[in-house]
Amino acid sequence: MATSLLSRYPWVRTPFVVSAPMRVMSGPALAVAVSRAGGLGFIGPGAKTRDTTADLEEASSLIRTSTAFRTVPTTTSPLPIGVGYQLWADDINVALAAIAKYTPCAAWLYAPRHGPKDFDSWSRQIRQASPETQIWIQIGTLNEAKQLLQNSEKPDVVVVQGAESGGHGRANDGLGLMALFPEISDAMTGSDIPLFAAGGIADGRGVAAALCLGASGVVMGTRFLAASEARISRGYQNEVVRASDGAVSTTRTLLYNHLRGTFGWPEEYSPRTIINRSFVEKQEGKTFEELKQLHDEASKAEDSGWGPEGRLATYAGAAVGLIHSVKDAEDIVRSVQADALERIQMLLSDKN
Predict the structure, then answer these.
(1) Interacting residues of 349 by C-beta distance below 8 A, sequence separation 6+
(2) How many CB atoms neighbour CB 11 within 10 A?
(3) Which helix (H) or strand (E) covers residue 269, if one does?
(4) I want to staple 157 with a disulfide (CB 3.0 to 4.6 A). Which of 38, 136, 256, 328 is the partner?
């Protein structure tokens, strides 16, 4: 990992492991726990942009009372956690006020309504409000990478998300990380922008593979859904642990967004979710109105609303089959880091 990257995040251990800013579910407890363990935790977008402000306040309080961060003087340095925004939905003025007040070390930008110019506008204003906050931008195609290089405001980090990812990825033009990452890396050669790999990474094997592709670090989302600190219903979390064979058990569909009353995502994006009765019955021909009624009834059933016979949205990535238990975020970070280093060392030993 480049020394300059490490210098921006002095608490991070190698390999550089990041918890993705999953909407609502990546709250302050998870973000702080990941950073405390030697990774970088991100707070995800809230249901409303103002919710993220409250999360930053809570994270700031957790960090002030944590002995693990005493080497980071939070009164003068950025908070050792990041914050994520979905540009199509979030209010930039509310976001800027929160970033200026709390100075997170990084702001993760994703899903612009009007393409690259939105990244430019957000990046410029965030840097004016908080010069110490690094700009992370998530992309999922080669074309997006080329467009970023034409922007006047270059990101500090680019996250390359493969089609294996959970949540909202590319709807029609996604590509697996193994092929996507090297092509984007080649296109961005000479930019000196660190690239992080995301999508389908859930253990040390995936981390080691990403590093071999040339990534400066990795981002995991679905694996942290099964962290004890995740802001998630137990039924949802149990389903992430239960599911396997992501090629069969997950799919990309807007159905669950619409059942939940979520509309407005740019057409380039569609979420990956674990399949349950809602999707199966849609395929069988049940009307949206019928599915909506059954979904709303299931939402009152607490944890039983999830599972193969459930009907609620269970956004997760294709790597669900690699997740077998709920663990503390610290255990996830450190075990993944240790496993990745061991595998890389084995490769070096075999070479010798």
Answers:
(1) none
(2) 17
(3) strand 269-274
(4) 136
Q: And the tokens for 264?
A: 């407005």
Q: Do residues 224 and 330 lie in contact, with contact meaning Cβ atoms separated by under 8 Å?
A: no
Percent of all residues in the chain with a pLDDT value above 70, rounded to a whole number: 96
| More confident: 179 or 65 | 179
Residue type at 119? F
Q: Model's pTM, two decimal places?
A: 0.95
Torsion angle of C-alpha atoms 140, 265, 272, 326, degrees rounded to 10: 100
Q: Is 343 left (phi over 0), alpha (psi -120 to 50) or beta?
A: alpha
- Measured distance CA(254)–CA(263) in Å, rounded: 9
Which sign does the torsion angle of CA 231, 328, 134, 127 carry? positive
- The answer for residues whose C-beta is within 8 angstroms of residue 36's C-beta and 6 or more apart is 66, 68, 69, 330
Q: What is the pLDDT of residues 249-288, one digit of tens each?
A: 999 999 999 999 999 999 999 999 999 999 999 999 999 9
- Residue 274, helix vs strand vs coil: strand
How far is the CA of 285 from the CAs of 114, 278, 290, in angstroms?
35, 11, 10
pLDDT at 75 over 80: no
pLDDT one-digit tens code per residue, 124-152 = 999 999 999 999 999 999 999 999 999 99
Q: Identify the sign of the CA torsion 149, 153, 157, 161.
A: negative
Residue type at position 253: T
Q: Are 256 and 273 in contact (CB under 8 A)?
A: yes
Q: Count the Cβ atoms, other than its own, within 10 Å of residue 286.
A: 14
Q: How far is CA 136 from CA 238, 283, 346, in A?
A: 31, 38, 32
Under 8 Å between Cβ of 128 and 135? no
